[in-house]
Write a structure and sequence with these properties.
Strand content: over 45%
Order of helices and strands: EEEEEHEEEEEEEEEEEE
Shape: elongated
Radius of gyration: 30 Å
Distance between the termini: 20 Å
Amino acid sequence: MNQEPKTLHFGGSMFINPKVDGVFTGAIGPLEVDKLEIKPDADKRTIASKKAEGYGNSRKTYYTGKPALITIATNEVPPILFAAAFMGEQVTINQGAGTKADLAVTLPAYPAWADLPNTNLASEGLTATGPAAATLAVDVDVEVNYALGLIRATKGGAVKAGGEITMGYSYNAVTGTRTKGNLKPAIEAKVILDGKNLIDGTPVKLTVPLASLSPKNAVDFMSEKAIDITLEGELMIAPGETAPFYVDELATTV
């Protein structure tokens, strides 16, 4: 074992393998990370002297183990970290295309909007009728937000005070992913850093067999810069492992 002192400056890429319902789902990466910090931890215990001479001084100091801590910060965010940042779980969005006919809508007074049951509306063929079956003209009597599925009266239109209207429209398919927030306080994952010491080029591999990760910071949707996701948590000794993390300095042969 080489005991020569060395200067450390690491660089590398992270891989993360989520554990869902007790099963690892596959490593995601390589990912660019701004921070991957491991902090071994312990509690200090002190037995104080009660003797008159030296009262209060330590006659025995020892340490007991605590879980090591991990912090990950990145703005390169795969879905698993996106969900973790919101303590969320992800489900599939799958709205099929369709039509609505004779849909009753209660229109509030201008300027409030009414929610429609569908989004991604088609502008072509949309109809709206007011009291006494009077036709309401789009952009004259009513305003429609087609993407969000919202409708409201215009300021000077025929139904500016609101009221009951009837609508007909077509809506297009919508697919995607929804994160349902604040449902999962933490995720479990295996973390690997594929790195090297930038000083001497020695390959270095950090392996965390199992970590529990939870968001540290809020997500500012209106941030003026790229959003950083920061997760922190504790390392666990996974079944079959002998330590909560391993750091391997690797010798390569040609």
